[in-house]
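tool_call: predict_structure(chain=1)
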Amino acid sequence: MSKTTVSAFAKRREAGEKIVMITVGSAAESAAAAAAGIDILLVGDSLGNTMLGFDNTIPVTMEMMLHHTAAVRRGAPEAFVIFDMPFMSYQTGVADAVRNAGRALQESGADAVKLEGGADPELIRKLVDSGIPVLGHLGLLPQRIQTIGGYRIVGRDEEAAEALIAEARGIEAAGAFAVVLECVPGELGRRVTEVLHIPTIGIGSGADCSGQVQVLYDTLGISARTPKHAKRFAELGEAMRGALAAYAAEVRSGTFPAPENTFK
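tool_result:
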């Protein structure tokens, strides 16, 4: 398999072919996603909620993200992997952002980084000029829930919609290869997709985006709560609980381990 580069996603958009992205956080997850033909593996800071037990993404650190992204890379050596820059890893200045993004590529093996918000176009341009591909992220910004007052739809009125479109144009002009649109109205997702030349990756932003991203634990039915934008394609949480209950019952009854599970 040849290594995928950012140019492939621009070609997919031009050809009208949808791009598929999923969040992963371990070698086993990335291996399964790559085998299933997923185009992009995003090591999202949402692993703070899904894997690490935090209430939000704020406590996630660079070291945590490096650890998980390296595992994802080992599980899928040829996949296109994106490192989600965690809270305060790029907000403190261009020098810090370039240093941390460089670590993301050097130490974890990621192919690109993702930044929440319009960010400073000069920051995105500096990263790209340094050889670091950037995925933008607009709409609902989980790293800013402390200031916006929780999770909410973004861009429902025309003023907010125009502001988001302007931010998207700025991200494109700065050199980002694509942009995530999270929880914006479907009509706004369509408008942004039409005005940009780079791909848009939607999550809760309608079917007109160039592609879609979802959280793995939502799609597999492991999350306790399913967001409106998600669909449970399996019920692995229920299956895991049933399997573990069966294991515990057999240990307690003495039926496991059986002779075939015992070394002679």
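agent: Strands lie at 19-23, 40-43, 80-84, 112-114, 134-139, 178-182, 200-203, 211-214. Proceeding to next step.
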